[in-house]
Design goal:
The protein is an alpha/beta fold. The chain has helices at residues 8-11, 17-30, 49-59, 74-88, 103-114, 130-137, 157-163, 186-199, 228-231, 258-271, 277-288, 295-313, 334-340, 346-357, 381-396; strands at 36-37, 97-100, 120-125, 141-146, 168-174, 202-206, 234-239, 252-255, 328-329, 359-360, 362-363, 373-376. Strands 2-8-7-6-5-3-4 form a seven-stranded mixed β-sheet, with helices on both faces.
Length: 398
């Protein structure tokens, strides 16, 4: 490497497609263009008042003006252990928790702790854009396991078993899914756990959308179905960002076996030290509240889910699977592309949609799901309706 050049691992790092598109949409808005954006993966609601009040009180407390343990405030770690037992069926002590700077940071640190150069990491596709990049930063090899709209965007036990090799070190599980909204049932989760138990690989379960489900059933956690042996290889990642509309507060966490937690806490002590104490106090207030406190937000998402899926399904050429969780829909444009725009891609159509119709969506290519678009329905009802109308008009002109 020439002196002064950027390290190869960072030169190879792909930028976040979702952030890039959202930034382009915001730039167009700054120019006075009326853009409807389905790109951003964050709730459009303000953080609840009681959380903000807790943060204000914390900011006035000199205790929070100093360094605290790298693994997080003891009170918050204890509360996270309690909600993990309640929501994920995994009883753990507070010492099994590390508080991180958001869920993405937790995933990065978990992968850094569990993946050596050359290790293979199995990732169901379509997947969240950062998973493979985080694996590559650790020197690992991301191995997609393809799913489709026909399979409900879920990996089968047979697929998982066939994908595991001697080089496999980690499987990443996410339910509800970003970008598809797919939610595994209790039986499907248990079937995957059986394969993973026999394989002896590490498992990272991303549960950031755990409380955002809309079909009357919750999203089962791997923590509820693991054997004692698999429990020793299971790492859960979660955070307050999606459930409590706290994306900007940057508080996530990792729950896992003591050896993983110790390694991650050590890594964090060198990377960032502790998470901002005011944010930790705010997260503590959020987690102490009953989940019913955020019911209005979930009800709004449920209403928007009905509206966006119904609107997109009415557009000729689009195939839409009802998402059971998160706040995304992942329609297929494959029939439409074949019939009206041969040779074009969902990426090219997304670029045209933004420039011509002023609607931002994330092309499926960003998630290893070409031929699809990801639309977030975490935006206002009126904007959602107008955006779907523009999409229908744009596609109707092809």
């Amino acid at each position: 490497m020439a002196r002064g050049s950027i390290a190869a691992r960072l030169r190879a790092l792909a930028p976040s497609a979702t952030l890039a598109i959202d930034q382009r949409a915001k730039a167009m808005r700054a120019e006075g263009i009326d853009v409807v954006s389905f790109a951003a993966g964050e709730p459009d609601f303000p953080t609840p008042d009681w959380v903000v009040d807790a943060a204000i009180e914390a900011a006035r407390d000199p205790r929070n003006h100093r360094y605290t343990p790298a693994a997080g405030l003891s009170e918050l770690r204890e509360q996270i252990a309690a909600v993990t037992a309640r929501d994920s069926g995994l009883a753990v002590p507070a010492s099994s928790v590390v508080v991180t700077n958001g869920g993405k940071h937790a995933i990065y640190e978990a992968v850094a702790a569990l993946v050596d150069p050359g290790d293979e990491v199995l990732i169901p596709a379509p997947y969240w854009v950062s998973y493979p990049e985080i694996v590559r930063l650790a020197g690992g090899v991301p191995v997609p396991i393809p799913t489709s709209i026909e399979t409900g965007f879920k990996v089968t036990p047979e697929q998982l078993e066939a994908a595991i090799t001697k080089r496999t070190s980690l499987f990443i599980h996410v339910s509800p899914s970003n970008p598809t909204g797919a939610v595994y049932t209790q039986e499907e989760t248990a079937a995957l756990a059986e394969i993973l138990d026999a394989a002896g690989v590490w498992v990272l379960s991303d549960e950031i959308y755990q409380h955002l489900t809309y079909t009357g059933s919750r999203a089962p956690s791997l923590g509820e179905v693991v054997t004692e042996r698999l429990r020793e290889r299971l790492v859960l990642v979660n955070g307050v960002a999606k459930t409590f509309a706290m994306t900007g507060w940057r508080v996530g966490w990792l729950v896992g076996p003591r050896e993983v937690v110790d390694a991650v806490a050590n890594l964090q002590s060198q990377l960032t030290s502790n998470v901002a104490n005011v944010s930790q106090r705010a997260a503590l207030a959020a987690l102490r509240a009953p989940l019913e406190a955020t019911a209005p937000m979930r009800e709004a998402f449920a209403r928007r889910r009905e509206a966006i899926v119904s609107g997109l399904a009415a557009i000729e050429g689009l195939d839409v699977l009802w998402p059971d969780g998160a706040f995304y829909v992942f329609p297929s444009l494959e029939r439409l592309l074949a019939e009206r725009a041969p040779g074009a891609s969902s990426l090219e159509l997304a670029a045209r949609l933004l420039e011509e119709a002023h609607v931002a969506v994330v092309p499926g290519e960003a998630f290893d799901g070409p031929g699809h678009w990801r639309l977030s329905y975490a935006l206002g009802d009126d904007a959602l309706e107008e955006g779907v109308r523009r999409i229908a008009e744009f596609l109707g002109k092809l």
